[in-house]
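[step 3/7] inverse_fold.run input=structure_tokens len=374
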């Protein structure tokens, strides 16, 4: 590998939930955010709806540093929120969150988006995990993005945490992705020729008044508009901090491998994007139980097999970037230990024991609170 260290950053979105009732707390964008900013500065920011809040990490060089800092930030933010009788919930959707009761955060950008997208914007009661990885100067980020796209369903499967919507089990493990697909300029990006082609597309949309800048392309992966990074956006918010850090480390090592080995992931056909999107649907529905269609055949493989193959492909980068500690965490996730599986296990156990749907959802919320900040 080159001496480039592939620095990275993590953004985690959370719901703020009233501890006693489970109802979403709309103070998150107001007094709670102000209190958090006084203590944590720009590491905390608002999100689109008033009941959401976001942690924005510093730039990391090492996975151990990321693990420590993300735990500390969650703990500190949890203490601030807890002083107001609320708690943090890290999940792609809130089990009992009512989207029609939410309001957009009082900021020009969010108000403009809601005015533009109408009910689609108001239904955006979802939380995600975003990971930025620096790409060396002189390397075309679009080329790296094009070659990374085939692995996006894997990252979604490993992160699934949104099986509930409006107090109901959806039958999907990532309902967040289905909601997000309602947005324009979401889902999988197209295969652009290079960064110049991508920039020309952005400029064309700007001239037409469709977007203000590239940050309004909400694809599952994209070159960041403000930083020299490639940004993973497909993942649900991870309930357990170690899961989010492990997924960030996996993406970091994948980006490094794609840069260091330009042939990796390069083969594609006219079928590729649609096959990847079919696999993304399977990940939305079944999570780590999904069977993915292979990149060059109709054979299907398990998520566990796809993960193990990827770990083998990028083993040099895992060793070089000192990310070996996350491998057991990733392997645990494919053993049906994602947040979505844990939530459904609790819910179904309560229902089998004769408890009401409301009581079962309260038990899910209790687990989410305790697992978000142990």
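[step 3/7] decode complete -> sequence:
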């Amino acid at each position: 590998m080159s001496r480039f260290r592939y620095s990275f950053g993590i953004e985690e979105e959370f719901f703020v939930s009233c501890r006693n009732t489970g109802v979403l707390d709309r103070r998150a964008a107001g007094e709670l955010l102000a209190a958090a900013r006084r203590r944590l500065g720009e590491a905390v920011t608002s999100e689109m709806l008033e009941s959401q809040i976001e942690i924005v990490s510093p730039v990391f060089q090492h996975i151990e540093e990321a693990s420590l800092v993300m735990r500390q930030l969650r703990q500190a933010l949890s203490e601030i929120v807890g002083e107001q009788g609320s708690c943090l919930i890290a999940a792609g959707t809130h089990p009992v969150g009512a989207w029609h009761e939410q309001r957009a955060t009082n900021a020009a950008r969010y108000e403009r988006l809601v005015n533009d997208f109408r009910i689609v914007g108001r239904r955006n009661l979802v939380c995600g995990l975003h990971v930025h990885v620096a790409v060396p100067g002189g390397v075309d980020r679009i080329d790296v993005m094009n070659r990374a796209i085939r692995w996006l369903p894997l990252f979604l499967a490993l992160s699934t945490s949104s099986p509930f919507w409006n107090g109901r089990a959806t039958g999907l493990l990532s309902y967040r992705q289905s909601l997000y697909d309602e947005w324009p300029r979401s889902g999988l990006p197209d295969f652009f020729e290079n960064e110049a082609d991508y920039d020309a597309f952005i400029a064309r949309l700007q001239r037409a008044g469709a977007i203000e800048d590239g940050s309004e392309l909400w694809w599952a992966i994209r070159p960041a508009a403000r930083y020299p990074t490639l940004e993973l956006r497909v993942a649900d918010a991870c309930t357990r901090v170690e899961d989010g850090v492990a997924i960030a480390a996996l993406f970091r090592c994948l980006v490094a491998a794609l840069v260091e080995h330009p042939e990796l992931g390069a083969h594609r056909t006219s079928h590729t994007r649609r096959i990847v999107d079919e696999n993304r649907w399977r990940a939305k529905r079944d999570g780590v139980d999904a069977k993915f269609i292979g990149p060059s055949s109709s054979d299907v493989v398990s998520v566990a097999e796809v993960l193990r193959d990827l770990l083998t492909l990028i083993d040099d980068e895992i060793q070089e970037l000192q990310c070996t500690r996350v491998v057991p965490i990733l392997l645990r996730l494919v053993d049906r230990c994602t947040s979505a599986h844990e939530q459904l296990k609790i819910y179904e156990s309560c229902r089998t024991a004769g408890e009401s749907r409301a009581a079962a959802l309260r038990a899910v919320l209790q687990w989410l609170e305790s697992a978000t900040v142990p």
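[step 4/7] annotate
DSSP finds 15 helices and 13 strands in the chain.
The chain has one domain: 8-372.
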